[in-house]
Amino acid sequence: MLKGEFSLSSLAKLKDPAPTSPNAAGDLFETDHLQHNLRARSIRGGMVTFGSQSAKLLISMVSAFSLARLLNPADFGIVAMVSPIAGFISLFQDLGLSMATVQKEKITHEQTSTLFWVNVCISVLLALFTVAISPLVGWFYGDYRTIGVTMAIAGTFLFGGLASQHHALLQRNMRFRTLAIIEITMFSSGVAVGIFTASRFVGWGYWSLVAMNLTSGFVNCIGLWWASSWRPGRPRRHIGTRALVKFGGRITFATVMAYVATQLDRLALGRFYNPVGTDLATPDELLLSRKAALGVYVRSQSMFITPLQQIMMPLNYVMVPLFSRLVSDRERLRAAAGHVMEIASAVMLPVAIGSFFCATEIVHVMLGKNPQWAAAIPVTRAFALMAITLPVGLVVNALFVATGRTDVLVKWEAAWTALILISLPLALYWGPVGVALVLGTGHLITAPVHIYIAHRVMQIDFKHCRALVVQNVTSVVLCGAAIWMAQPITRELSDLVRAALLGLLILLTHALTLYMFGATYRMKRTLQAIWPTRGGFNEA
Predict the structure, then answer these.
(1) What is the DSSP code (8-state) at residue 429?
(2) pTM across the whole model
(3) Which long-range contacts (CB under 8 A, 24 or more apart) does 302-307 make?
(4) CB 3.0–4.6 Å: which of 65, 161, 208, 342 could bond 197 by disulfide?
């Protein structure tokens, strides 16, 4: 359990002793000490990160509740206009160099210092570019207020560039508790400033949302510098940073391709979807129909993705440092990959089963029984197919990064983007359901290919996947049968009570399946290995 308040004062406890020389923080560059009880460290780190994500979710709910009563929708709209532009530019801010620091088996103070200054230079250039295009943003939206917001948001790039390598070194050393405290402090500080500046005592309006983002970036930067003992030196040439920059460039390209793939579906529905069987008289009616279809799709996707993000974020945070420390021992790497995949699957599968079999109840509870949301039911079921094989993609992509095969990752992301692009014209015939079905079945079909490529490229045996497939299929069948038998009993109950009871039934049936296959025993041994001793949690 994390002790103490999440404030700037609590960061003082995390600070390492001051270095006596530029490389006195060498403990941040050495990772041999992590080999001891590495599995326990990793899962403990995942638990801490999961707790951090839950705390941030709670804070965001408080923020949404408070700011919605202090600001009007137009204030949120002004900042929302700038967010997609800033979000796309931010993809290039890090250039994958922080991941290069995390992944590299051996890295020096000089190399990290050079990467730090590269990050700073890129951040400055991106900030200047953002300021330069701000008049175009104002012209595009026809609202001069977006010019100032765009200029102000550019400051977040500077904070990110200054903190990138410090964050990478802490992540490299698997100091997840330290990072969790900094993130929660950053997030809560930003929300506090946003609420205060939006209050009637200050009344900054939409500028309070800008202040919230800038405060979060500033506190994050200060926190990472304070918690880390490392200070950058002068940049140097001919010290092996070219390979690191090349590695980071591939990571960035893969990230951009993944971003494009996640936006293509919304772009296609919002721009090209033409409802079948309708005779829309005017362009305005067609636009309204597209907006409605996109709204159904986005809300269904949000209901499905939000719970999964609470699982995926901790896994992504931990997997690359874990796998990177095991690259030299392929047998341990294979075992670790199988262990993570089994845990991810055990947690994600109930979400998929619930979304598929209880889609009606979920939509009625979350969106209401208005007929306009009825189309969200089949869309939610289609998205559920994605979660079945999602752990495979997460683990295999992390292995590509950890083993330095980012070239394969780039090709995979490009192929996936091309597959989505080719499939969308046909999927649009069936509207939001067709698009969601393409994504869901696409993940199912490509999962074996993903595993085969990983086996050929990294020479890692994935035999455990066969047993995991049998286990998951058994769980789906048993859960489906249990829900079918419970239908007559729960038919007269309200949607909320029905959803809760069916969800509990799914969890119990899934747990029984895990017990039948021995998965609960393996997880119990893992928990016993990582459970806090009398001394409490060590730094994860």
Answers:
(1) G
(2) 0.70
(3) 303/355, 303/362, 303/363, 303/366, 303/367, 303/376, 303/380, 304/351, 304/355, 304/380, 304/383, 304/384, 304/386, 304/387, 307/351
(4) 208
